[in-house]
TrEMBL record:
Residues 41-306 form the Calcineurin-like phosphoesterase domain. Keywords: Signal. It comes from Penicillium capsulatum. InterPro entries: Calcineurin-like_PHP, Metallo-depent_PP-like. Gene3D superfamilies: 3.60.21.10. Pfam families: Metallophos (PF00149). GO terms for cellular component: cytoplasm. Residues 1-20 form the signal peptide. One of its GO terms (molecular function) is hydrolase activity, acting on ester bonds. This is Calcineurin-like phosphoesterase domain-containing protein.
Amino acid sequence: MHRAIAVAIALAWSLQTVAATDIPPLTFAKDGTFHITLFEDLHMGESAFFYSSPASSPAGPEQDAKSIAVMNRVLASEYPDLVVLNGDLITGDHLSKDTSTHYIDLIVQPLLDHNLTWAATYGNHDSAYNLDRDALLKREQGWPNSRTRKMVQGRDAGVTNYYLPIYASGDTDGAGAPEMLLWFFDSRGGTYYQEHKNQPTWVDKSVAEWFTKTNDELVHKYNKEIPSLIFVHIPTRVSLVTQTEIDLDPSREPGMNHDKPMFYQAENYCDDGRQNHKCKGGQDMPFVEAIANTTGVVGVISAHDHGLSWCRTWDDQLPGIPDGKGTKLCFGQHTGYGGYGSWIRGSRQIVLTDSKLADKDFDTWIRLETGEITGSVSLNSTYGQDQYPEIKDVKDECPVCDGLKTPNGDNHRSPAGLALLLLVFLMQIMI
């Protein structure tokens, strides 16, 4: 036990300032598949030591330890080629300026333990008065397995706007044309660092223009359309319209649908940029139109709404929305014990198959913190017509908590559980 605690302390007080190393390019496996595991809405540090109410502070380390336990349990059953952290990694509202970015060290430890690389988008809670998005990226990039980048400059653009190519099996040096592009977009939100000013909650028009221009350049360079999959934390109004205008059939489109209506990009923003709950936004439409006008977008994966976990088809039947040509819109599964909602935690899995990309087909399921699989579907041309079992939709009783207890199940912590709790606590108080 003392050794485990010593290791936890060493980890908590150390920061690997490794130089960025060349990570091998992403490639499809020999069987033609590429597996992505999504973790979203971890909300680390939400009940941290720096909360104004001392009574709330003990919940912080335990809540964060549960979130890490969910990640570890998922990775005990899934063997992805890439992990995507799809926003709201941290809740920055009440953290210390000096230590707010340190939570990324805790988040990536399970990924490092499994020798996995990852790519992140940042969410609205990843910006706060004491949490700087750029500083978070710098800290994250200190770890050698991070693929997160910043490809668009400017205050209005946000930070995590970039793409990652996936090459054919065997193309380990990326010499050929990509078989697939993974796009990551920053929907911003929260407040500007050290300012009492809100950030807009949509993908900026400049980023939408960069997306179109960059994709066109790649098409010209490789002389072919390249299928794309998009990750963005806050969903666009397209997802809202699919939810409010078309009834969801839980046996054909399995998934939780508790956030009705959902929270979406530019919600409560007026045309002139003022915030008012009566306004319906619209500033995300340049991004929506850019997606609709890009050939080969197989899906858009969002997070943010903890009570949603469905997938639907974006077609030409949505009022006021351009034709999505069959692009799939999906939510993941709330992973963290931070944030609102007590639905069972988990992680969406996505498997891309190179032979199916031209038809915009891919497979997906949710791995729950219990170890069970739910919502396994094939997102193909008949999705929405095919019958599937309804998803497991329950309020959780913290199944991962057993891993933090001693083997006899008493109220004391196991050595590993105690070490993890101590690590989280030290992350919250170190300066």
